[in-house]
Design brief:
One of its GO terms (cellular component) is microtubule organizing center. By secondary structure, the chain is mostly beta strands. The chain is built from 2 helices and 41 strands. Strands 29-28-34-33-32-31 form a 6-stranded mixed β-sheet, with no helix packed on it. Strands 1, 2, 39, 40 and 41 form a 5-stranded antiparallel β-sheet that branches. A 4-stranded antiparallel β-sheet has the order 3-4-5-6, with no helix packed on it. A hairpin with a 2-residue loop joins strand 16 and strand 17. The relative contact order is 0.11.
Amino acid sequence: MEFTELCKQSSNHCAYSPNGQYLATVVGYRLVVRDVASLKAIQLYACNETIQQIAWSPDSLLILAASYKLGTFQVWRLDDPDWTATVSEGLAGLSRVQWMPDARHIWSISNHQLRSTVYSLVDGTTHPLPAPKTPTEGWALRCDGRYLAVCERQRSTDHLHLLDTTTWQTVHAFPCGTNDLRHLQWSPDGRYLAIWDGLFDPRVFVYLPTGQLVAEYAPDPCGAPETGRPRTGGLGIRTVAWAPSAQLLALGGYNGRVTLLNHYTWKPVAEWGHPKRLETSRETRDAVVYREIREPFRTMGYEIATLPLTMAAETSDDAVATPKSGVTRLAFSATGDYVLTSDGRLSQTLWIRRLVDVQLVAVVVQAQPILTAAWHPRQPDLLAFACGGGYVHLWKGETLGCELLEVPTTHFAVRKLAWSPDGASLLLMDKDKFCLAFPLNADALGGGVSPTLDCAGRPLESTFPSHAP
């Protein structure tokens, strides 16, 4: 990889534009827009207060910056420096701002979810919407952007509202079976909506957009042998992920186990855990264990470890609000060939499984806790991760294995990383600096999923109008 020079940023507020051509960064009160290929600043915007959120419009023409302290957000247009818009929520405050799919409407959620409003950048009109239970996880947009699902609490009961984003009207509203709904997620094909509570309720519900309950799955809290279901230990679901094909739903519990449900019967097809000690067994027959080799003040690379192997584990206090135990990372690769998981008590370890036979193929054991990990958006078997040091770690598939790359600079620790939407560059962030890494063989990394197809292999249709405000 080739690395750029370091540039300043604040609070890790860095975001690629959806087309991958621009990179927006925050430096104090300023919003800087750079060209990704050269890192040259092409626009500089001054804000009224410290920026807590930035977001690109889906067409990459507009960008907003929100200040929760002032309860305002500002919008600029890249190709017209004189055009700007400012919206103030007044005494209601501001807790979240979200672009709508047409790139000409912005959804604003006030403090304590007292008010929820859609603002039009075309004619200045406003549309009130149901206020979600939480500003970040109490709602979800369908993959095509046509429908917005919002969870609302009414008379001590959770209700889901399905809104048409072209008319802002509620097309369906129905009560849910949850006790205290906290999360919801559309399937990649837009056919199903999965909802779950979180810490204290292990159930997950799958609904059709019309409100029909398709499935309810609840692991046995006692792990009874006759049920064949995993023991939850009294805690619920921590992470949920759909496979790109929408045919599998993965549930990661606070008990450290992952359950795969199929979309035909909504029954488990596979289930596994994250043991502290790896033994030679049928489950590990295809697995390669990559262990990081370290010397004082320097990381040397990887070695292939032999089994049995005991990994370092952290103690967990289940009495705290957010215990360390459980599946903290659960992500499918771009084509759904692999699934990445990790357990909060084994923070130095990554587990990679092949989905075709649900076989463990790689275990990566680091010397330090893994802070961030991300699959390449197009190449099916490329994973980047970092542990807070001056290195980028790559898993490059079953054939090539793990690789370690040193960032050629001093006083820079990779604490967060993100691939560009086209996969041509990798954003590396420290506390107050960032740089970009460009793969030497960019054409090889650009393969995989065609940009004209969605994750299920169907042609994409543009849902964003070309008109400008």
